[in-house]
Amino acid sequence: GQFSGIGAELGTRDKQIIVIAPLTESPAEKAHLQAGDLILKVDGEATLGWTIQSTVEKIRGPKGTSVVLTVLHKNSQKPQDIKIVRDTITVKSVTGWVKNAKEIEGIKISKNVNGKIAYIRLSQFGDSTNNDWVNIISKFNLQMQAEEDIRGLIIDLRNNPGGYLNDAIFIASEFLKKETPVVIEDNGQGIRNTRSVSRIGLFNDIKLVVLINKGSASASEIVSGALRDNKIEGKSRAILIGETSFGKGTIQEANDLGNGAGLHVSIAKWLTPNGTWVNNIGLKPDIEILLDEKDPSHDTQLEKAVLELLK
Fold first, then answer.
1. Three-state DSSP class for 270?
2. How far apart are the C-alpha atoms of 296 and 49, rounded to whole Å?
3. Mean pLDDT of 26-54
């Protein structure tokens, strides 16, 4: 959840490095990096043809040190050198907002469309996820009681590599009735243990869309599978939109060996409530849609999710 750098999500377009989005309150945001900016050079080295990984390695560095990016802003014709001092970046595992559909950045829909959409992004299932989740869900609950035109909720699990199994059950429980099955543990010796909802969720009835892609793995797939397999009045609790997920269907037990060493042992495989094992296969979305490679700032998957909720 922490690293030292400038705090920007990067992508590629036509073999060039592009800024997808700066993180909130990061050095990148304070330096006025914007979505769609091209990073032409890093400390004087041209980035043309660089991979995302090699670019990140060049830009990251110890807190307090600086990096000079040669940037071409989206609506400019002249590159600009920007010096950014690196800092410790803390990535929140849960972020979200409630917006009118026509005010959502990165999508292209008719300006005549009205209706508010709630959105939550989970970047991981880690130590602070449950607390962060409760805080934002409580805030949303108050907003939804005050607002009459919130059409539904989008849960964005794209590029979420997973984490704690118990956290996945905790999150899924927000949208399912008590004692509904969430995940099945299979120890490989014929013994299966069904883990079910164990708390009262606030959003059992809200219209729900889940965004997944090839970077959604493990706990992300547990949540997605539970919301897909469980039904209300014959319909899946949530619609899955995006790309087929990663396909990690095993459960690990972490052992601390001391002196910084550890051992993770696979102790079981997990199945969706319908008994599906996603390992090496992944979850196929109900609506498959790819991102716009020509325009990374255009989020076609989010756009489709919004349109589904506005139906």
1. strand
2. 17
3. 92
Mean pLDDT of the chain: 92
Let me know the angle formed at the C-alpha of 302 by 297 and 306, rounded to the nearest 5 degrees: 130
Q: Which two tokens stand for residue 215?
A: 């970077």
Catalytic residues: 218, 229, 248
Distance CA 215, CA 124 (A): 11
Pairwise CA distance, residues 169 & 270, whole Å: 12
The span from the CA of 219 to the CA of 172, in Å, is 10
User: Is the confidence at residue 1, as pLDDT, over 70?
Assistant: no
The DSSP result for 124-151, as a single string, is -B-TTHHHHHHHHHHHHHHHHHH-S-EE
> pLDDT tens, 156-215?
999 888 989 999 999 999 999 999 999 999 998 889 999 999 899 999 999 999 999 998
Contact 200, 283 (CB under 8 A): no
The number of residues in the chain equals 311
Segment 54-75 mean pLDDT? 94
Using CA atoms, how far apart are residues 196 and 254, in angstroms rounded to an integer?
23
